[in-house]
Amino acid sequence: MQGELVRWGVIGCAGIAVRQVIPAIQRSQTGTVAAVASRSKEKAEQTAAEFGVAKAYDSYEKILEDSDIDAVYIPLPNHLHREWTIRAAQAGKHVLCEKPIALNAREAQEMVDACRLCGVQLAEAFMYRYHPRYERIREVIQAGEIGAIRTVHGAFSFNNAKDLDNIRYKSGMGGGSIYDVGCYPINAARFLLAQEPLAVTVHAMFSALHDGVDMSATGLLEFEDGVSLTFECGMWCYGSNELRIVGSEGRIDVPFAYVGKPETLRASVVVGDECRELAVPTVDPYVAEIDDFGRSLLANRLPRFDPEESVRNMRVIDACLASARTRARVSLD
């Protein structure tokens, strides 16, 4: 790593990159966008001009060949995450890859192994968990303020079903609601409980109109000591975006649990007849994610989240999809 800033290359001009991540890199303390790439020269040049980026490439390969790039952000469709993460690693670039990190746990492990072999860092872009409120929530749980945890409920859904050309509705590209939004409450429960589920049961609605992907799903994850996560997700549903942690003595409510404007990202603790809001700073989680990864690169230390965590998350997603397709409870070893 040279200099005081991480020089980022963005592989693909997807909406999440243009709306959130490129602006976050530009506002971060640790990074700068040095180049953007698209398979469309016009789109690459347009995006570069919009954000004042010096270099625009008309292929993903060219951005990997650029010796001035330290790290790449990959917002490509899910089925391309493995290929371009491994190619980036082989080119000596650190990688921040959009969620879900891969199509299955096997692919995720291959990505982790390739990055480790090439001596580069890999992180999955679950930006929500970089917001300080989640550490405060963990502190409240660990302090026993709401008693023993009994259950967690998460919901994340939206309705965009009329957009039939959307990549979320292409089965071969890794489409479906569990991949797209169900992964958030699954990841959040595992993060907050600090354990892996023992079994999963998921019921889903698969739509022939949308290439057979799961357009909505409801699931149960069984953890130790009778603790559970119930979750709902969907792309053909009225919008939801929340998380609730229920204990024996109280609960924690998290509105705008996964995405939202920085001023809406809060949480409240309810115990008995009292409700208090957790004191957390107003932070953009995308900027926090970029700076956390950037500081690990500049200091030559491991990122906050071990990439093996992404492999474990994919194992749960694999089980959820298997359960939904077979309509059976799936155990995890």
Automatic annotation (TrEMBL):
Pfam families: GFO_IDH_MocA, GFO_IDH_MocA_C3. Residues 134-252 form the GFO/IDH/MocA-like oxidoreductase domain. This is Gfo/Idh/MocA family oxidoreductase. PANTHER family: OXIDOREDUCTASES, TRANS-1,2-DIHYDROBENZENE-1,2-DIOL DEHYDROGENASE. Belongs to the Gfo/Idh/MocA family. The keyword Oxidoreductase applies. InterPro entries: Gfo/Idh/MocA-like_OxRdtase_N, Gfo/Idh/MocA_domain, GFO_IDH_MocA-like_dom, NAD(P)-bd_dom_sf. Keywords: Oxidoreductase. The keyword Oxidoreductase applies. Residues 6-123 form the Gfo/Idh/MocA-like oxidoreductase N-terminal domain.
